[in-house]
Design brief:
Bound molecules: guanine, fe (iii) ion
CATH class of the largest domain: Alpha Beta
Number of strands: 16
Helix content: 25-40%
Number of domains: 2
Oligomer: single chain
Number of helices: 14
């Protein structure tokens, strides 16, 4: 193995939330030992001249051909690994009925570690194939099956945040834990993941949501997150019935967001899925705590939870990433998450316009540049990984998708400019357009 690999061709990433940076004749040099980017260069007309005048002379060269480009790997900030079992089922139900009918029976079957192993291998392969190089996973309440999931992720090479789910109340008798064993198993799980000393793997404290967690459990989980310096993920303000039931259970808290805050769960390392129905003061609280949001647009439509207005969060400087929320969302693909986010944003535009009788409609829906940013840099920020991933910069990890516009679900008709080619990928591309997928320099999936 040579010390370096040089990727030469077009690469595309976010220069800022508003600005796509499309670099033709670019060079990304990857250190093969560390998987980190050692050098980035723009406008290299002649590769030989560049190599001869650099310290990368002996590098392996990978030519990114015409109609191909590299983009940063996708970051899925919220997905339920066991729920991939029934993706697409129950889409006629709303959240609380769907949980009882599909989710809890399915997740309880992961008590069987062999079943977990079989299922999780398929899940992780599918997500990698779709270009999800980093994923934040909810598993189940079972310590064993959670360890199995982490082992598989480690083998297959995804960068992942993994949570053992906690539930000690308002759950069916076949899928519930005692408070103390829930806390003990969470501690054991954190130690198991941290004991691997694999920088790609992070344990996450994962109270399912306030409905299924007692006050004692949430306080205990907050203490664990602090003790081990780990992130926290949960669901917040997803659906009207859920919000009403939650607030009836925790009457001493001012609102749903305050319930988590009152239990010490809104930290800088925490991120909340959905946040569809939030009062301004709740968003302000997330901003003040530096807590992030996972926007799960497919799920919000599919379980008809509501249409989240992402602009409100961005305007208040709340970190936002995208989540598939498999299987509240039926698709494991972040390209789908991008498109669902696009439709949610357009729906907001339509709602804003129709609410105005006259006067100027100043609502700006998300642009393609913003969509790609949220799926990469935004997700990295939510997970606290913005120094490590999300764009191609020296010192960051080479988490990348080698996009090939030919041979898949896209037609190039002739005359498309560079931006239009990227847009064709975002709106009409599929896993068939991903020639290779890399996590920290390692190739973890290939189309052929
Ligand atoms: N709220 C609590 N659990 C879940 C879940 O599994 N999926 C979704 N979408 N929302 C939840
Ligand atoms: Fe979810």
């Amino acid at each position: 193995m040579t010390k370096y690999t040089v990727y030469h061709g077009t690469f595309v990433h976010s220069a800022s939330i508003k600005e796509l940076d499309i670099v033709s004749n670019g060079i990304i040099v990857v250190d093969n030992e560390t998987g980190l980017i050692a050098h980035v260069e723009r406008d290299v007309k002649d590769l030989e001249t560049f190599l001869n005048s650099s310290s990368f002379e002996d590098a392996t060269v990978q030519k990114v051909e015409k109609e191909q480009f590299l983009i940063p790997g996708f970051v899925d900030t919220h997905a339920h690994a066991p729920q991939y079992m029934f993706a697409g089922s129950g889409m006629d139900l709303q959240l609380l009925e769907w949980l009882e009918t599909y989710v809890f029976p399915c997740e309880s079957s992961f008590k069987d570690a062999d079943h977990a192993k079989q299922a999780y291998e398929k899940v992780i392969r599918r997500f990698l194939r779709n270009g999800t190089t980093t994923c934040s996973w909810f598993a189940t309440i079972h310590l064993n099956a959670c360890q199995v999931l982490v082992d598989i992720i480690e083998q297959l090479g995804q960068r992942a945040y993994v949570g053992k789910v906690n539930m000690d109340q308002n759950s069916p008798d076949f899928y519930i834990e005692e408070t103390d064993s829930s806390l003990n198993d969470t501690r054991a799980f954190i130690q198991y993941v941290q004991g691997k000393k694999n920088e790609l793997l992070t344990p996450v404290v994962t109270p399912r949501f306030a409905i299924t967690c007692s006050s004692k459990l949430m306080h205990g989980l907050s203490a664990l997150a602090k003790e081990y310096q780990v992130p926290i993920q949960t669901h917040l303000c997803e659906n009207h019935n859920e919000i009403e039931f939650t607030c009836s259970l925790f009457k001493e808290s001012k609102d749903y967001t305050s319930i988590y805050d009152d239990h010490g769960l809104l930290t800088e390392k925490a991120y909340m899925a959905h946040c569809v129905h939030m009062k301004d003061e709740e968003i302000d609280m997330l901003a003040a705590r530096r807590t992030g949001v996972s926007h799960c647009a497919n799920s919000n439509f599919s379980l008809h939870s509501g249409v989240c207005d992402v602009r409100r969060f961005l305007e208040k400087n709340v970190k936002v990433g995208l989540g598939t929320d498999v299987a509240g969302g039926f698709s494991p693909s972040m390209l789908d998450a991008i498109r669902s986010t696009f439709f949610a944003s357009k729906t907001q535009k339509i709602i804003h316009r129709d609410m105005l009788e006259k006067g100027e409609d100043s609502y700006t829906p998300l642009s393609p540049a913003e969509l790609l940013y949220l799926a990469t840099v935004g997700g990295a920020q939510v997970l606290g990984l913005e120094e490590k991933i999300g764009s191609f910069e020296k010192g960051k990890a080479f988490d990348a998708l080698w996009v090939d516009l030919l041979g898949g679900s896209i037609d190039l008709m002739g005359g498309e400019n560079e931006l239009q080619k990227v847009e064709k990928f975002l709106f009409n591309g599929s896993d068939q357009n991903l020639k290779h997928v890399y996590v920290q320099g390692r190739r973890v999936s290939s189309r052929d």
